[in-house]
Amino acid sequence: MFDLIEDTVGRHDFLLTPCSAETFKIIYGHTEPHRGCFGNLSAALKQFDIKPDDIHISFNVFMNVDINSASGKVVVLPPKSRAGDYILIEARMDLIVGLTACSAEMSNNYSFKPIGYLIES
Description:
Blueprint: E1 2-7, H1 21-28, H2 36-45, E2 64-67, E3 74-77, E4 87-91
Antiparallel strand pairs: 1-4, 2-3
């Protein structure tokens, strides 16, 4: 589908599904959570007839997720990325890509900042 051409961080995640309103209820105890990445992706991809049940996993760029060797639990660690870090991806076929900036507190080291992106054809 694509080649990863450059990567200044070297740590990304394919383990976690996109966060959702349910995630924020369970992990953070939010009583009125926002829709999260899953809701954002569902809304953005609806125009392409991609249904929520078709969104299984995401490529969580810059997310630092590991498995605790003692407990076997998946843990979200502070990101290793710094300002100016980037990845360069080259598509090998036509793709529908949904982007969302993670709003999960732990994934962002409890600090939210804008993420820039550029799509060239």
